[in-house]
Specification:
With 269 residues, this protein is mainly α. The protein has helices spanning 2-17, 23-44, 54-74, 80-87, 90-101, 108-127, 133-156, 162-181, 192-216, 219-222, 228-241, 247-268.
Length: 269
């Protein structure tokens, strides 16, 4: 899980560094970098590429590319650590959506944990002058669509291979990112080609290490380590981009992470 956090942190920092290419172009290169691994895996293991639940797979891909694109756009306006911590609100939106669409039940104490997390969001927005309102809305939109992704994956269940699901996501990202990039294309120079393609490499291995971590331990034992990504990203952002975080903004980030971890801990029990 720590290796996963390092990979996702590297991807986050590169997204911030390459933000001038625009969200659509970042989506395109992020997908290209991962597609090499997903297609190779499916072809090597002779797994049907098109899957079984094509409509749901397409919906998951569209929701995923929307979430990713909004997040990539938001880092142009927000400190990278704040953007990452706010995007982690997605489990809350996933739970709310699951209540309506999957008829899941939520205990009263879980709403208390969610209230704690939202209080943290208000503190981040209210006490950090670097939080741009437009960027704030973009990253909240990213969290909402990421919550939609969780619900759709739950709906897909075990009827399709996980790599098939990710592969759909990558292909749809290439189509959407490619079409939108036509209208605002910036040609990479020199090493920028490698940096852009490495987005997908770091993203793929971050997901791989996280999956293996969940497979090797009980979820409630290691899930809190997932949020180390926020800490890594904030620290790296201070040194690389000279980001500054007011004290109460840091307290807000801590409330967001604590509220989410308590909810996961309670559900696992």
């Amino acid at each position: 899980m720590l290796l996963s956090a390092v990979c996702f942190t590297a991807m986050n920092l590169l997204v911030k560094y390459l933000a001038h290419f625009g969200g659509a172009q970042l989506v395109l290169f992020r997908a290209f970098g991962s597609l090499f691994f997903t297609m190779s895996y499916l072809l090597w293991h002779k797994i049907p590429i098109f899957g079984n639940q094509k409509k749901l797979l397409v919906y998951r891909g569209l929701a995923g590319v929307t979430s990713m694109g909004l997040f990539f756009m938001s880092v142009h306006y927000l400190p990278i650590g704040s953007a990452v911590s706010l995007r982690y609100l997605s489990p809350i939106f996933a739970t709310i959506l699951a209540v309506f669409f999957l008829r899941e039940r939520v205990k009263s104490i879980q709403w208390l944990f969610f209230l704690m997390a939202f209080t943290g969001v208000l503190m981040i927005k209210g006490f950090d002058p670097n939080i741009d309102s437009f960027g704030f809305l973009l990253v909240l939109g990213s969290a909402v669509f990421s919550g939609v992704v969780y619900v759709l994956i739950n709906k897909i269940g075990q009827k399709d291979h996980p790599v098939v699901i990710v592969n759909y996501f990558m292909w749809i990202s290439i189509v959407v990112g490619g079409v939108l990039s036509i209208f605002n294309w910036t040609t990479p120079m020199g090493a920028e080609w490698g940096l852009l393609l490495s987005l997908g490499v770091f993203g793929y291995f971050g997901q791989l290490f996280m999956t293996k971590a969940f497979q090797s331990q009980a979820t409630n034992k290691i899930v809190s380590l997932k949020y180390v990504e926020v800490i890594f990203t904030m620290i790296a952002g201070v040194f690389w981009f000279s980001d500054a975080y007011p004290f109460f903004s840091l307290v807000g980030t801590l409330l967001v992470i604590t509220g989410l971890i308590l909810n996961i801990w309670y559900r696992s029990r």
